[in-house]
């Protein structure tokens, strides 16, 4: 069995050493083998898990979703319906976030269009933010 250091694991998977240690601390990956000098050493299966986690994070999955997906991947008796349900739920969350971001963008575009952007102190953007803070519509 070939083992690699945390630096090598990071270079191979694209996951920073800090995040590898974080994933270990939250139990997303199993604790690595440690040598007498206490250095972490990772096996090929650990590198796979780190790559799986990185790709999952790139798609915006939460740590809990990733934990479930890893468990399903490891379970050869899994139902693909469970995996699909997680993916569809995440798609719905992404669509909701995208709609919220689009709404924010439209609001800011409207405010920016109404701002003269000159040397005068009055600014509809600041006024809208001030009203938002005070709870006024």
Notable features of this structure?
single chain, 137 residues, mainly alpha, Multidrug-efflux Transporter Regulator, Chain: A, Domain 2, 2 domains, three-stranded antiparallel beta sheet, 6 helices, 3 strands, elongated
Structure description:
It is a single chain. This protein has 137 residues and is mainly α. It has 2 domains: 1-62, Multidrug-efflux Transporter Regulator, Chain: A, Domain 2 (Orthogonal Bundle), CATH 1.10.1660.10; 79-137. Helix content is 66%, strand content 5%. The protein contains 6 helices and 3 strands. It has helices spanning 6-13, 17-25, 44-58, 63-74, 80-114, 124-134, and strands at residues 4-5, 33-34, 40-42. A 3-stranded antiparallel sheet has the order 1-3-2. β2 (33-34) and β3 (40-42) form a beta hairpin. The longest helix has 35 residues, at 80-114. The radius of gyration is 23 Å and the shape is elongated.
In short:
The chain is mainly alpha-helical and 137 residues long. The chain is built from six helices and three strands.
List the helices and strands and how they pair.
Elements: E1 4-5, H1 6-13, H2 17-25, E2 33-34, E3 40-42, H3 44-58, H4 63-74, H5 80-114, H6 124-134
Antiparallel strand pairs: 1-3, 2-3
Query: How many structural domains can be distinguished in the coordinates?
Result: 2
Output the helix-strand order.
Answer: EHHEEHHHH
> Overall mean pLDDT score?
93
Shape, per Cα inertia axes: elongated
CATH topology of the largest domain: Multidrug-efflux Transporter Regulator, Chain: A, Domain 2
Spatial strand arrangement across the major sheet: 1-3-2
* Gyration radius over CA: 23 Å
Strand fraction equals: 5-15%
CATH class of the largest domain: Mainly Alpha
Helical proportion? 55-70%
C-alpha termini separation: 64 Å
Number of helices: 6
Structural class: mainly alpha
Major sheet details = 3 strands, antiparallel
Q: Which CATH architecture of the largest domain?
A: Orthogonal Bundle
Strands, count? 3
* Low-confidence parts: none
């Amino acid at each position: 069995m070939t083992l690699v250091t945390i630096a090598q694991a990071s270079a191979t998977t694209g996951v920073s050493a800090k995040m590898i240690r974080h994933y270990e601390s939250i139990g997303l990956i199993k604790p690595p083998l440690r040598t007498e000098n206490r250095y972490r050493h990772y096996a090929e299966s650990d590198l796979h898990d780190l790559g799986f986690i990185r790709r999952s994070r790139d798609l915006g999955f939460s740590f809990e979703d990733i934990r479930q997906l890893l468990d399903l991947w490891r379970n050869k008796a899994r139902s693909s319906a469970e995996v699909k349900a997680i993916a569809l739920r995440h798609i719905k969350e992404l669509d909701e976030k995208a709609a919220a971001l689009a709404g924010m963008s439209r609001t800011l575009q409207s405010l920016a269009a109404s701002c003269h952007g000159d040397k005068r102190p009055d600014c509809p953007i600041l006024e809208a933010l001030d009203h938002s803070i005070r709870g006024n519509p």
